[in-house]
Write a structure and sequence with these properties.
Blueprint (H helix, E strand, L loop, with lengths): L17 H43 L7 H6 L1 E3 L14 E6 L4 H5 L6 E5 L2 E2 L5 H11 L6 E7 L2 E7 L13 E5 L1
Length: 178
């Protein structure tokens, strides 16, 4: 693409077919421009799709005043509708909960499907690295909202990470990707 088509004196080079090269270069440039336009349109379409999914989940969700028993246990129903929005897609399942750990104290159970962990949901790439970062940056004694599905019912569980609870990790549970 950058090789000169003329020699040092300014005449067309005799060792190459200049016309074919100019046609090929023009085609490559057209294809590159088309590619850029398609990628720009795709970027806008993806952003619009995720934005509409977020607004749909925000309008579908109703806030509920938690009962004192549920609030004391750390688990609160998060939605009254039976419909599932795109934000409710589980990306992990709890496959282990350590007795006496923060997850057990919050009411998390084996088999719970995680739909959001703080600000991390199924739309994020590297979800498990982001969950780890979310736990690490969380201030001490501040709960993280974990949205789960338990037997097709949505709940919010408030987990307060603790490094000194006597077990492995800060949460006392293990998440397995779905």
């Amino acid at each position: 693409m950058t090789t000169p088509l003329v020699d040092s004196e300014g005449y067309p080079r005799a060792d190459i077919d200049v016309a074919k090269i100019r046609i090929a270069r023009a085609r490559i440039i057209r294809l590159q421009n088309d590619y850029k336009k398609v990628m720009d349109k795709l970027k806008v379409a993806v952003e619009d799709a995720f934005a509409s999914a977020e607004t749909a989940s925000e309008t579908d969700t109703e806030s509920i005043v938690p009962s004192s028993a549920a609030a004391a246990h750390g688990s609160v129903p998060s939605e009254t509708t039976n419909g599932h929005s795109d934000a409710d897609i589980p990306f992990a399942v709890v496959d282990e909960v350590s007795e006496g750990g923060p997850a057990a104290a919050a009411g998390l159970k084996v088999g719970d499907k995680v739909t959001a962990f703080g600000s991390v949901d199924w739309t994020k790439a590297d979800k498990f690295k982001l969950i780890q970062a979310e736990v690490m940056k969380n201030p001490p004694n501040v709960a993280i909202v974990v949205k789960i599905m338990r037997m097709d019912k949505k709940e919010d569980v408030m987990i307060t990470p603790k490094s000194d609870w006597g077990g492995r990790g800060s949460l006392g549970c293990h998440l397995k990707p779905l």
